Amino acid sequence: MENENVLFWSKAAGTFLVSSAVLYFAWKKIISKPPKKNYPPDTVILHQIGRGPYASSMTPYAIKLETYLLMANIPYENVHSFTKSKKGKFPWIEYNGEEISDSEFCIEYLNDKLQIDLNKDFTAKDRGIARAFQKMFEENTYWAFAMDRWVYDKEWTACKIFKIPLLAGYIGRRQIKKIMYAVGMGRHSSDEVYHIMELDLKAVSDFLGNKKFLLGDKPCQADCSVFGLISNAYWQSFGSPVESTIKKYRNLCDYCQRMKETFWPDWDECITHGNTKEAIK
C-alpha cells in the first residue's frame, strides 16, 4: 500500500511539473518580443494586449491611451500582443524608435513632443479637479474593479476571454491576491470593497451632473482616463455588482455612450462582440 501511494504521488507530481513546464513555455512564447519592424515615421505605435468583447480593450489603460490619441488626432498604429514594455507594463508606445512605458508618461511624452494641450481651455482650478478625479479612479477605484474581475469572479470570465489555462489562471489569481493585499484593497471584505467603489462612482456622478464631459461642454485630458476606467467596467463587468452599481448612475452610462460616439465612430469594429468575431481594427 505504501509503495502504491508513493507511485501515485510520484506520477501526480510528474504530471504537475510537466503541465507547468508546458504552460510556462507556452506563456513565454506568447509574451516574447516580436522582431522589430520598420514602422512609418512620425506615427505612434501603440502596443496593447488586444481587443475586448464589448469594449476596445480588457484593460482600461489601453482605452485611456487610445482615446487620447483619437482626441488629439495623432496618427497611430496598433500592435496587438502580450509583449510588455521595458518596465514590464502594457500598454506602451514607440515613436520614431523611442519606447515609452506607462499610459500617463506616454501622454506626457506626446504632449511635449507634439506640443499638444487638451487642457488649454480650462483654468488651473479645473485642471486640478480633473486630475484629482483621474487619480481617484486610477489609484483607488481601479483596484476595486480589479478585485471584482480577478478575485471575486467565480466563473473565471477574464481567464476565458484571454484563453488562459485554468492552472495558470489559478496561479495568477493567487499572485493578484497578494498584490491586492499589498496595495491595501485586498485587506477589505467584498462588501467593503464594493462600498468604496460606489462612493467613488457617486462622487464623479455628482460632479458630472448634466455636463457633457468632466469639465463641461469640451473634453479635457482626464476624460481619457475616466472614460477608460468607467467604460471598461460598464461594458465588461459581465453581470457583476460593478455593472449593476454603474447602471444606477444614468449620467455615467450616458457619459460612456457620449465619449464613444464622439471619439470612437468605429467602436463596433474594435470589439469582438462577445468573442464571436475578430475585431478588424
Explain what you see.
This protein starts with a helix and ends in an 18-residue tail after the last helix. The chain has a four-stranded mixed β-sheet, with helices on one face. It has helices spanning 2-31, 60-71, 103-114, 124-152, 157-162, 166-183, 190-208, 222-235, 241-246, 250-263, and strands at residues 44-48, 76-80, 92-95, 98-101. The longest helix is centred in the N-terminal third of the chain and has 30 residues, at 2-31. By secondary structure, it is an alpha+beta fold. The protein contains ten helices and four strands. 57% of the residues lie in helices and 6% in strands. Strand 3 and strand 4 (98-101) form a beta hairpin. It is globular and about 45 Å long.
List keywords for this structure.
globular, alpha+beta, single chain, 4 strands, 57% helix, four-stranded mixed β-sheet, 281 residues
Given helix and strand content, the structural type is: alpha+beta
Q: How many helical stretches?
A: 10
Strand order of the largest sheet: 2-1-3-4
The gyration radius over C-alpha positions equals 21 Å
Q: Assess the beta-strand content as a share of residues.
A: 5-15%
Q: Between the first and last Cα atoms, what is the distance in angstroms?
A: 60 Å
Q: What letter string, H or E per element, gives the SSE order?
A: HEHEEEHHHHHHHH
Query: What does the main sheet amount to?
Result: 4 strands, mixed
The tally of beta strands, per DSSP, is: 4
The coarse overall form would be globular
- Secondary structure: helix percent: 55-70%
**Rounded mean pLDDT score:** 89
* Poorly predicted residue ranges: 5-32
Could you state the oligomeric state of the chains shown?
A: single chain
